[in-house]
Amino acid sequence: MLRARRAAVAAALARAAEGPPGPGCPCGSRLRLPGGAADPDPDPRGWREVVAAAVGALQAGGLVAVPTDTVYGVACLAQDRGAVRNIYSLKGRNGSKPLAICLGDVDHIYRYCHVNVPDELLRDLLPGPVTLVLKRSDELNKDLNPFTSLVGVRIPNHPFIRELARACSGPLALTSANISCQASTLTVSEFQDLWPQLSLIIDGGPVGDVQSPECRLGSTVVDLSVSGKFGIIRPGCALTSTVEILRQKYGLIPESS
């Protein structure tokens, strides 16, 4: 089974790859995303092959670098214990800092989380540059962030990673493509030191202005696990608009109040 998966990945890589392999990248596994990260009308054939290659790498237990709506990320299957260990090792973490899960659609949140806010609130914020922290359900891999009853949920406003998440049988674990405590990355060349530890790198071009510090802030992380309240865990790039929605439209109050 594993040999067949690897063969499928290799075949998809051969079809989708453009240009020479990236230096330091195993198996020449750097793929360019047709149209780039922000193309609203990508070539469906080219994207289909890249998605297939990424799914194959994930199913084989690999780590895949992906563009998102904020910064570049690294994803693995959240239900795969070994892959989760590997992503912690890649980040240089000891396992005490939680990973978020990434889903393709808001409807999927209810399987992995206990939701205590209106569905409309979820859809006002997602997809978008926001991570919502909710109480996790028993459906989620117990080896993922075993030290907390909460989990952050991301649905990036980026067509490629949403298609990838939909194509997988379970949630993705997602973290930024950088060593912990280092700056977030906006191009694949900025995390080139990590390439040898990755199974596949999806190059969607720059996902932000590399000269702008604001573009490296990452998603705004909001704790919605307490009914009627919200807590800002990380201000991120969408703080003002997120707080406005939570306070003015839904009447939530800050946890410090």
Automatic annotation (TrEMBL):
<keyword id="KW-0963">Cytoplasm</keyword>
<dbReference type="InterPro" id="IPR006070">
    <property type="entry name" value="Sua5-like_dom"/>
</dbReference>
<comment type="similarity">
    <text>Belongs to the SUA5 family.</text>
</comment>
<keyword id="KW-0808">Transferase</keyword>
<feature type="domain" description="YrdC-like">
    <location>
        <begin position="48"/>
        <end position="238"/>
    </location>
</feature>
<dbReference type="InterPro" id="IPR050156">
    <property type="entry name" value="TC-AMP_synthase_SUA5"/>
</dbReference>
<dbReference type="Pfam" id="PF01300">
    <property type="entry name" value="Sua5_yciO_yrdC"/>
</dbReference>
<dbReference type="InterPro" id="IPR017945">
    <property type="entry name" value="DHBP_synth_RibB-like_a/b_dom"/>
</dbReference>
<protein>
    <recommendedName>
        <fullName>Threonylcarbamoyl-AMP synthase</fullName>
        <ecNumber>2.7.7.87</ecNumber>
    </recommendedName>
</protein>
